[in-house]
Amino acid sequence: MPETVVRKPPVAVIGLGSMGFGMATSLRRAGFEVTGCDVSADAVKQFVAEGGKGASTPADGARQAGIVVSVVVNAAQTETILFGKNGVAETMAKDAVFISSATMDPDVARRLAKQLEASGRHYLDAPISGGAQRAAQGELTILASGSPAAFAKARPALDAMAAKLYELGDVAGEGAAFKMINQLLAGVHIAAASEAMAFAAKQGLDIRKVYEVITASAGNSWMFENRMPHVLDGDYAPRSAVEIFVKDLGIIQDMARTARFPVPVAAAALQMFLMTAASGMGRDDDASVARMYARVTGTHLPGEPK
What we know:
Elements: E1 11-14, H1 18-29, E2 34-37, H2 41-49, E3 53-55, H3 58-61, E4 67-70, H4 75-83, E5 97-100, H5 106-117, E6 122-125, E7 128-129, H6 131-137, E8 140-144, H7 148-161, E9 162-167, H8 174-202, H9 207-214, H10 222-233, H11 242-259, H12 264-281, H13 288-297
Parallel strand pairs: 1-2, 1-4, 2-3, 4-5, 5-6, 8-9
Antiparallel strand pairs: 7-8
Helix pairs in contact: 1-6, 8-10, 8-11, 8-12, 8-13, 11-12, 12-13
C-alpha cells in the first residue's frame, strides 16, 4: 500500500522580531507553509524575500491557519492579537492551536486560554528561551503548558522550533510561571555581571583578562559569559533590550507582592534596569547596565567617550 503522507498545517507567525523571524524561518525549513505578520512592513518584506508569505494584519495571516505562533513582547499585545481589531481568534481554523510565546503573568495566561478555548480553539502557554541565534537554528528551549489536545496540535511546530521542550502541566499558566523564575535569575545575573565588569574597570583591571578569568572560575554565569562580550566590544545593539527586563522584573514584583513573598535581590536588579532605561538606554542591549554603572562612577568602558 502507498505510504500515507501527513500534510503539515499552515502556520502563521505573528511578530517577526529577532526571535519570531528565526522561529518562522525554522518552521519553513521544516516544511511548513508559513505566513508572517509584523507591525514592521520591512520585516514582512524580508520574510517574503526569503521564501515565506506575508500578511498585513494578524487576522489575514492566521486565516485558516492550523497553528498560530505569537511572538510578541507582553500580555497586552498577545490579547490584542487574539481578540482585538484584526485579531486571530475568529480567523484561525476551528480546532487550531494558538502558541503564545510572550512572557506574562501566569494569571493572564490562564484568562486568555479560557477565553480562546471557549471558541473551540486551543491555547498553548509556551514562553521561550535561548536568544535569536538559537531561534534561527530551531534550537530554542520552550517551557510549555496546556491541554493534551493543545500539545497534540502544536507538537509538529514545537519540534521544528525547539531543541528542548518542557511539558510542564496540562493547564495554561504553568509555562508562564516557570518562565518568570528563569527571568528572575536572568535579570539578576545580568545586573550582577554588569556591576562586576564595571567595578573591574574602575579598579584599572584589563577587563578582557577579567572575562577570561571569570569564565573559567566559580563566579561565572551563563549571562556573564553571553553578555559581557558586548561590553568588551562596546557593542550595545539590542539582542535583548533593557526594557524587556524592566517589564519582566516588574511582573515578578507584582507576582511577589500578591503572594506576600519577598524578592529583595530581584527588586534591586529591577532598579538597575530602571536606572539604565531612565538614562536613555532602554532600547539598547541589556548589557547596557554596565554602561549605566560606568557613567555614574566616571569609569571608562570600551566604545564609550572618555
